[in-house]
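Following the same procedure, backbone shapes were mapped to integers, yielding the entry below.
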Amino acid sequence: MDEFLSEKEQIEQIRDWWRENGWYLIGGLALGALILFGWNRFNSYEDAQGEAASELFVELRQAIEDDAPGDARSLLAQLRESYPGSPYTDQAGLVVAVIRMDAGQMSGAGDELRYVMEETSDPELSLIARLRLARVLAQQEEYDEALATLDVDAGGFSGRYNEVLGDIHVELGDLVSARAAYTAALITEESNLVDRNLVQMKLEELSSLNAATTEEVTQ
């Protein structure tokens, strides 16, 4: 503002500016307050949702400790219906899959793992569910489907994936592929998640299996 204007002229200019721009300023402040209010409400809602999901998850774990698998499955259904995007729902699916495996309900366990694998928003958790699903399929002797399930970019879990691939190839009698998979599990950069001693033992057992097979052929 021109410093040589009279005080009256300066006041008049301020009034003119306010008449032209005041509503924009008020609108901007109101919008900012509305956004802040909405963000706080959203955070409060998220906190409440997380707390409710957490309480159901605790109930589910208690049902398992009380040897009430039916109640656990019912609570899992509630979590999936009411809180489908919650990490507690994903974890509950993995837990229920374990108890169904322990009960010999392999198909049911596979269904639970497949649900987590496909529905979770956590890529790493999806890979964990996929790996466990492959193990379940292998136990059901669904080897082709198990191999197809593992045919993805496993990222940091590639060591574990290769180990399971090796186990499946052993069951199929493909010792060459099994050896390649076990070796890959040991040399991959992501081998820190692998029990290296166990994988090494599996490699040594392959040599024994190969020798036994060769002896049978020559007899």
